[in-house]
Amino acid sequence: MDHQHIPVPLPPDYHENTLFLLVQSPRVLYVYWELSPGLKDLLEKKEKVQIRLNIEGRGPFYTTEFNMSQKSFYFSDVEPGLTYNCEIGIISHDNLFYPLLRSNSVSTPLDRPADGRTLAEAPPKDLPSSSSWGLPKGGK
Question: Which of 39, 23, 41, 43 lies closest to 31 in space, CA to CA?
Fold first, then answer.
């Protein structure tokens, strides 16, 4: 019996509301989204729609107009060592932000060792001296 596998293409959209935040590096976050047809229709009728990056416990860090034709966005120059989430929402006539979709939370790693030294000043202690992973003398 000959079993042929016919590849089934993935759909371009799942028609669900999704907002997912990822860490790209200690200073860059990447967010992607999918909007259901109902939410797309609602947002297209609104004058001001924004995407907002929040520092948890502090509030908004970066806010920009939401572009309905895009499906992702990079936030650069974020602060390492903090926890962030993202929201898509509308701005009311009295200039208040009303979130309609919220992402997961992510924590950016530190961009240096926790004690403040540079990586060259704080090489890993557990590596044998003959390891190819060791830093050269002078840390460069």
Answer: 23
pLDDT on residue 3: 72
Side chain identity at 20, as an amino acid letter? F
CA angle 37, 42, 46 (to 5 degrees): 145
- Averaged in consecutive runs of 10 residues, what is the pLDDT profile of the chain (140 residues)? 80 90 97 96 95 97 94 96 97 95 97 71 59 54
> Which residues are paired to 23 by β-bridges?
29
Cβ–Cβ under 8 Å, residues 44 and 36:
no
Model pLDDT, residue 116: 67
The per-residue pLDDT for 13 is 83
How far is Cα 37 from Cα 97, in angstroms, rounded to an integer? 22
Kindly tell me the sign of the dihedral angle through the C-alpha atoms of 37, 23, 76, 62: positive
